[in-house]
Write a structure and sequence with these properties.
Elements lengths: L2 H11 L4 H18 L2 E7 L6 E5 L4 E6 L3 H6 L6 E4 L1 H15 L17 H11 L7 E2 H7 L6 H9 L12 E2 L13 H11 L4
Parallel strand pairs: 1-4, 5-6
Antiparallel strand pairs: 1-2, 2-3
């Protein structure tokens, strides 16, 4: 049987009954609701504009600003269910608001960094150790993680930081003293603002 004959047979048979299709959809939706991870999210006002935050059951997993809500949601895990919930994000939001108000210099929240590679994790863990009001160079971070020639890779890992501000990648600058890049919303202007807030510049 050639392809044309096969298509004719399929057209004669028709598709599955509507009830069967509806039943399949229902079973898929039930499976998704039971097995897909839940990401809860919210948006708060900040001096850098609307700041979007999301958390899994493990902890804060996404922070972003300078983008639309649609872009923020599309950047989350596509296999997860999403639900806006201010109460679920209240602790994270409260610490961020206190930070912007100058009332706290760091964060003590659980983080979910499970989607990162081991190298990215090592870079971000090093960045977390940079004291408020201080800056390190990309080279310093590279040496801290035992990869002294990996300055460029360090910059790339910092650029993939899923929780900027909370993990202070803005505290890493170029070896010539310039600010280097910043993947957060607003780019280098936001990096400069954050460093000014912390008294580093």
């Amino acid at each position: 049987m050639n392809e044309r004959e096969l298509n004719q047979v399929l057209e004669t048979l028709g598709g599955p009954p509507e009830a069967a299709v509806a039943g399949s959809r229902r079973r898929v939706q039930e499976w998704f609701a039971q097995t897909a991870p839940l990401l809860q999210w919210d948006v708060i006002d900040s001096p850098l504009g609307p700041l979007y935050i999301a958390a899994s059951e493990r902890g804060l997993c996404h922070v972003d600003f300078g983008i639309s809500q649609a872009d923020f949601l599309s950047g989350l895990d596509p296999l997860a269910r999403t639900e806006q919930s201010a109460p679920a994000l209240a602790r994270f939001a409260g610490q961020l608001q206190a930070y912007f108000a100058g009332e706290r210099s760091g964060f003590d929240v659980e983080l979910d960094l499970s989607r990162l590679t081991s190298f990215q994790l090592s870079v971000l863990q090093a960045a977390r150790r940079i004291p408020t009001g201080s800056v390190w160079t990309y080279g310093q971070v590279a040496r801290t993680i035992g990869k002294p020639k990996a300055s460029r890779a360090v910059g790339q890992a910092l650029g993939r930081n899923p929780v900027p501000i909370v993990i202070p990648c803005h505290r890493v600058v170029a070896s010539d003293g310039s600010l280097g890049g910043y993947s957060g919303g607003g780019g280098v202007d936001s990096k400069r603002w954050l460093l000014h807030l912390e008294g580093a510049i």
